[in-house]
Amino acid sequence: MKTITLAHGNGGQENNELISKVFYKAFKNDILDKSEDAAVIENGNLAFSTDSFTVSPLFFNGADIGKLAICGTCNDLAMMGAKPKYLTCSVIIEEGLDKRVLDKIVRSMKEELEVNGAVVVSGDTKVVPKGSVDKIFINTTGIGEIEYKGISSNNITSEDTILVSRDIGAHGATIFASREGIDMNTNLKSDCASLYPQVKALIDAGIKITALRDATRGGVSAVLNEWAKQSNICIEVEEASIPVSDEVNGICELLGFEAMALANEGTFVLAIKNEDAQKALEVLKQTNETASIIGSVSAEHIGKVVLNSAWGTKRFLELPTGELLPRIC
Prior knowledge:
This protein is 31% helix and 26% strand. It has helices at residues 13-27, 30-33, 65-78, 99-116, 170-180, 196-204, 219-230, 246-255, 277-285, and strands at residues 39-41, 46-53, 59-60, 63-64, 82-94, 119-128, 136-146, 160-164, 209-214, 234-238, 268-273, 292-298, 305-308, 314-316. The strands form three sheets. A seven-stranded mixed beta sheet has the order 9-11-8-12-10-13-14.
């Protein structure tokens, strides 16, 4: 790795290499080493996360960069069983941006904050010369109060079942179609949504949660591979059980994408204790009927994800590599 390429931001193999060989190496500590969606601090009482958003186009079917910025950080907190409470908002604005565009983005942020019951308490604004950024970049940092302790992607075992909260790949497919001007004449739209209400429903139902992760860059494929390595397990996934909409399947077949590698912004993967898996599925289906149990844990190929096809064949599901869809979040 001599220079940084767009592939280093894809959420897959190159991205993991960049993070581990540069940032983890420089900032190594016990909290960071856990590699969770959010840092657990203050004796397990608080979750802390930050994210930056550079999506192109700024507005797309189902959401915009403003909604995305709030959902992204609040969802990372929710994945640690935390209720989002306080956020910061920093923006880098390109000279010449229409103020009406900025107003619309900020309104979206305000509406999504209300969904989470969170507030922005600090921020920063920079304006840079035209051409320095693409219209607007947003960073949000969040603190949440942990309501369910012990969630960790390092603790998954054979006692867990793997679920997904809804059909996958809608965000990545929507962004690509919008960016390239592809009119599918369908209802395809981003899944961008705040996940705390669903996590809260699981907690209130008494579900035994081992791990949660929202499947953003690198999609479900990246999440499962990261979990397999972090927990030193093998995850077996039933391909026929993975929910993919007809619209996303169409994009994938047309352009050669893999739905499992496409980004999501309102879809999460769950590791739930076996005895609670069916109950958790019932809770998830109250929000989206396409929620599904997709896999289990085995000891056959430690550190790997095995995809079982409907025809009885098996293959490894690898981390995404190369330049997938730049600027999806």
